[in-house]
């Protein structure tokens, strides 16, 4: 009897060890390429003296953080600009890419071709090539309302120049948003594909309209993907190359060689991103559809009824 | 005789085709003659218009790049020429190639892209499997670290990393003069968005039925062998997705290389576009000077935005070709990868 128990324990232990073997590269990586630099960066940001050669840090000071808020007059405005830029863009990115993914998931002819086309801006990348294309004013030229081709000149005259410029600007940024949503479309497409058709069938048999099906089947089923997508979009936008604040930080870090101040600023920025993502997680967790068992449990917790037996979670072995 | 049989056959085929068409037309009429049918037709038409319109927006930069790359100066400046150049000026390409001087840089780019992608795929699938299948102490914390690693911008880590690498040497060479800072992290599931791939693979492995591995174990297969021989080959769809994403991101990345890779001899292809832009935007005198340095004869209308676009085409061509090959697999992968984001 005792022997049996011991055996079981070792089996569990062995499985734990196997798991650790698989995750070992990540543990090493996390220590070397993540925790070490991030703590080092924290240390740099509060060091009062720094020597690049030999990496000697000395002293403690919060001067750099104070500088960001009190002394530096351009940090906070840049910060605000970046945040507003991201927070206005990401809902649009999510909504537009969801719409496109739904369209691409419909039974249309040439679907494969369309999917490839919608991925092309991603291939050209957010790097030099796309930057150059945007610099040549192409984003504004795609949906050009000012040249009188879509809307005749007479009508344009009626609205006046400033209105047209604003409209053109909105269209231009809409186009850049669309170009930047390739990955989001793909993720949504994957999410839509993973919804079981039987759910739709059941909904149809119960007499649900398309609209109801969209809100009560598609959206809940895709909500986990929505979370992933929102996090991805936020992070992508906060860390993109043409980000104003990051260029600003970089100018301090690598052009002016003020490592401490740059590290302090990037820490503030990182804390802000973490906060935003945490808020998103918090909000989404409430409304997110997980798996069936979890859903029922949620309902149980809410209404204090017990419908299924509480079984321990199944794991390997 | 045979000719008449043939004509008879073709006539029959034609008749068959016509009757088929007629049948289709009748079906079409029946389907769309009612009110709800008409509504459906309307919805379909709107859907197609929407998709085609959006597709136009998405393909625009690509078309613009290709078309403008073969334009002459006159075409660029003329208002009437939008899409079809009056003459195809392929000299733009030879000029762009000369300016890029890109063979060496292309090889550098390809080398780093391929090695880093291999690292990502192997390491991340391995780690993802561990997260999907096993329970061990600290699993939750480690997975939270995966998400955190995804959220933390590279820019926060780059200053301490830069300082650290600048103080490490290998074989007498400074780390910053090699590709170590770019390549090594990818073999540990880090590097350019490594955490995302860990997440993708974990997501896939969660959908693999456990009975498969159980059967393998009963047959006496060790856990490593089970992983390499049974589970890993199943992940082909996710593998293709990860490879495509990793290749595209690495090829287009310019942030980390611009900081870690100091010497020009080791730099990459995409940043070379700046070289062309710099020459194209320079004053005429400086432009001619630069052209003479390169041993090219400067003309009046040789260097313009068309050459820049030709350079952009050259730079993005490998990625576009690669995607053309991987495309069908990739799309299947997206459909089958079982990514649900849970």
Write the layout of secondary structure elements.
The complex is a heterodimer of chains A (317) and B (342).
Chain A: H1 2-45, E1 49-51, E2 56-58, H2 63-71, H3 75-105, H4 111-124, H5 128-135, H6 138-142, H7 153-159, H8 161-179, H9 182-193, H10 197-205, H11 210-238, H12 244-255, H13 259-287, H14 292-303
Antiparallel strand pairs in A: 1-2
Helix pairs in contact in A: 1-13, 2-13, 3-9, 3-11, 4-9, 9-11, 11-13, 12-13
Chain B: H1 2-33, H2 35-69, H3 73-77, H4 91-100, H5 103-133, H6 139-151, H7 154-166, E1 169-170, E2 173-174, H8 180-183, H9 194-207, H10 210-218, H11 223-234, H12 236-252, H13 255-260, H14 273-281, H15 284-293, H16 305-336
Helix pairs in contact in B: 2-16, 4-16, 5-9, 5-12, 6-9, 10-11, 12-16, 14-16
What do these coordinates show?
The complex is a heterodimer of chains A (317) and B (342). By secondary structure, chain A is mainly alpha-helical. Chain A is built from 14 helices and two strands, in the order αββααααααααααααα. The model of chain A has no long low-confidence stretch (mean pLDDT 78). Chain B is an all-alpha fold. In chain B, α14 packs antiparallel against α16 (305-336). The relative contact order of chain B is 0.12. The model of chain B has no long low-confidence stretch (mean pLDDT 81). At the A-B interface, α1, α3, α4, α5 and α6 of A face α2, α5, α6, α7 and α9 of B.
